[in-house]
Specification:
Blueprint lengths: L2 H7 L4 H12 L2 H17 L9 H19 L24 H20 L2 H12 L4 H8 L3 H25 L3
Helix pairs in contact: 2-3, 2-4, 2-6, 3-4, 4-7, 5-8, 6-8, 7-8
Length: 173
């Protein structure tokens, strides 16, 4: 194995791997362990990586490692769905304490709604919205057709909308 090629092509994606693992496993320590295990797997199988972007390849390994962890620890949820440029005066744009509190509360509600999604739905949201991957890359990572990625993303967004709408109705946000 060419260690410098591995470091150049795979290591820049550790943060993205950690982000995905944290959302799938719902914990920092488990995510760190999963990314470390995934990096070891990636190093072991680096020779199988073809030319091109190593990010989807590595994130696929992280995903499989996370799902292995969920299965091993029996934490897999039951009943899963498979499926401006103008001039501006110098004004302090830092939100005040009330706005900062509101932003934190909204962020916490969004995080809770995202964490409540089953892993197959949560992963497509994380990969698309937080990691900015296109549908084809997500499909390669998840090992499913692009159409499945699109339908999972649609279902996940609808569930997030419903959960956040319920929060609004209860006055929680």
């Amino acid at each position: 194995m060419d260690r410098s090629a591995f470091e150049r092509r795979v290591l820049p994606h550790l943060d993205a791997g950690y982000n995905l693992a944290r959302w799938l496993l719902r914990g920092d320590t488990q995510a760190e362990d999963a990314v470390q295990e995934a990096a070891l797997r990636a190093m072991r199988y680096f020779d199988t990586l073809r030319e091109g972007d190593a990010r989807p390849w590595f994130l696929g390994i992280v995903r499989r490692t996370c799902f292995d962890t969920l299965a091993r620890t029996r934490q897999w949820p039951q009943g899963l769905d498979d499926e401006d440029g103008g001039d501006h005066d110098a004004v302090d744009s830092t939100p005040g304490p009330d706005a900062q509190l509101y932003e934190r509360e909204v962020g916490a509600r969004v995080d809770a709604a995202l964490r409540a999604l089953p892993p197959p739905l949560r992963e497509v949201v994380v990969l698309r919205e937080l990691e900015g991957l296109d549908y084809a890359a997500i499909a390669r990572i998840a090992g499913v057709p692009v159409g499945t990625v699109m339908s999972r993303l649609s279902r996940a967004r609808e569930r997030l909308r419903q959960a956040l709408a319920q929060d609004l109705e209860r006055g929680a946000v």
